[in-house]
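Because showing beats explaining, we let one protein speak, sequence and backbone structure tokens together, and leave readers to judge.
___
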Amino acid sequence: MTSLDSVLDKDGVRLTVDDAVATVTLTNPAKRNAQSPALWRALAEAGRALPGSVRVVVLRGEGKSFSAGLDRQAFAPEGFDGEPSFLDMARGSEADLDATIAEYQEAFTWWRRNDIVSIAAVQGHAIGAGFQLALACDLRIVAEDVQFAMRETSLGLVPDLTGTHPLVNLVGYARALEICATGRFVHAEEAERTGLANLVVPADQLDAAGGDLAAALLAAPRDAVVETKALLSGALSRTYEEQRTAERAAQGRRLRDLAGLAD
């Protein structure tokens, strides 16, 4: 790929590639990058379109807000053109409803693949689906004006776009419950203190900070980063002894590879 090669640009999502770094940009600042099923399909397509050379993916939003969440048109009786409305979904079978939500979730699942490291660069509002999209990434750099909020419960719904698992892992059950049940805002200082954010920077330094972190992640050999990410991402589901075993197996693979003895 040549520098800044545009791979995809549709439905409010643009994917560009610069050697080992891909950038996914939400491109509807006039609507604060509000999300829709079409945008979710474009995000899923961006994941499938990543070249094998990509090691780091930076997710960003144009304008003053990262993403204000689900487009309010979703709550209108007619919904989005060509899409099932919430009312239509509720009237359908349980299996159809489950399949529809599973399709929407595909936009949020690929960011934690072991072969890439994903960074969300978040400014302004990241509400509901916007918060969950930021949580879908491995790492988060936030601007000083960031405002996270999980508003689904306040609307009589639940967060269903994969955000609950990383939220609990990052801040713990009690704080996650309080954040979701109250729908309150989480600002930059709390986000950094509780582990939601890896770094807080002034808004005008957000893109540069994302680029610096991407460059730092590229400094280590790819296979070592892939193995380390797999070890860490699976640690919470393993016992201490199981994690020790996984570490030995991973190190054995790395040593054999470095010695030229890999299978």
Residues 240-258 form the longest helix (19 residues). The chain has a mean pLDDT of 94.
